[in-house]
Write a structure and sequence with these properties.
homodimer, alpha+beta, 7 helices, guanosine deaminase activity (chains A, B), metal-binding (chains A, B), APOBEC/CMP_deaminase_Zn-bd (chains A, B), Cytidine_deaminase-like (chains A, B)
Chain lengths: 148, 148
C-alpha cells in the first residue's frame, strides 16, 4: 500500500474508534510494505494514560515480531506523534513516520501535544522533579548489570 | 514511607530486575502515602520497546484506580525519566517525581536518554516525519468526536 493510503486508513480507524466511544487516534506499523500491527487509543477502556495509538501499535509490533528493535519498520498515524509517542518511536528504532494532521493543526482540538513540545523545547515542565541522587546509590543497578 | 525510602526501594527493585535478566529500571506510584503500583522494565521479556518502569507503573496505577487521571499520585523511580516517560507522566497528571540518578549521571551507562532530551530541545530528531496533512483529511476524527 502507498503511504497516503495507510495514513487514510489510520484516519478511518480513528473515526471508528470515536464511534466506539474512544479517542480519535489510530496507528499502523508496517515492515517491507506489509502491515505488522494496527492499533487505536484505548485509554478510556483500559484506564491507561499511555494508551496512545502509536504506543499500542509499537507494543503489538514488538510482541508479534518478537523483538524490541523495529528499525526496519515504518509507522503511520492520523496525527503527528506527541512527545511521548515520538520518544517511544526513538526507542523502537523506527525511522520513518507518516501522519495526517500536524501538532499545530491538532491544537485546534487539543492544545496539550503542542504545549508538551514547548515544555521539552524550553525544559520548563509543570512536573516537579526531585533529585535524590545525593541520598541514594542510584547507579547501583547499572554497575550490577555490567557485572552480570 | 518517606520519599528517600521509596527511591531506595526503586533501586532495590531495579537491582532485582537485573538479576532476573532484565533492564536496570523500576518505578513506584503512590497516592496519599500508600503504594498504588510497583513495576519494573520488562522490555526484554515482553519485546515491548515502551516497557520502561515508569510506563508500567502508570499503566498499573490507572488500571488499579480505574482512572487515567493520576493527578493525586506521585511517582518514584531509580532514574530520572526519559522524555517518553516524562511525557507519559504529563499525560497521567502526576505532578511530583522523585528519582535516584540524573539523566546526566545515567549517561555514563546509557547516553540515549540525554541524547533524546537534546533532540527535543533542538527539534532535530533522527526520526523522519512525513506530513500528509495536505493529502488526507486528518481532522475528520476530531470533528466526528465533537459531533458525537
Amino acid at each position: 500500500m502507498k503511504h497516503e493510503e495507510l495514513v487514510k486508513r489510520c484516519v478511518k480507524l480513528a473515526e471508528r474508534n470515536v464511534r466506539d466511544g474512544q479517542a480519535p487516534f489510530a496507528a499502523i506499523v508496517t515492515r517491507g510494505g506489509e502491515v505488522v500491527s494496527e492499533a487505536v487509543n484505548d485509554g478510556k477502556a483500559t484506564f491507561d494514560p499511555t494508551a496512545h495509538g502509536e504506543i499500542r501499535a509499537i507494543q503489538m509490533a514488538g510482541t508479534k515480531l518478537e523483538t524490541t528493535d523495529l528499525s526496519d519498520c515504518e509507522l503511520y498515524t492520523n496525527c503527528e506523534p506527541c512527545p511521548m509517542c515520538l520518544a517511544a518511536i526513538h526507542w523502537s528504532g523506527i525511522k520513518q513516520v507518516y501522519y495526517g494532521l500536524s501538532i499545530g493543526q491538532q491544537a485546534e482540538f487539543d492544545e496539550m501535544p503542542q504545549e508538551l513540545y514547548e515544555a521539552f523545547r524550553t525544559g520548563e515542565h509543570s512536573v516537579k522533579l526531585h533529585d535524590y541522587s545525593g541520598k541514594v546509590d542510584g547507579a547501583a543497578p547499572f554497575r550490577l548489570e555490567e557485572r552480570e
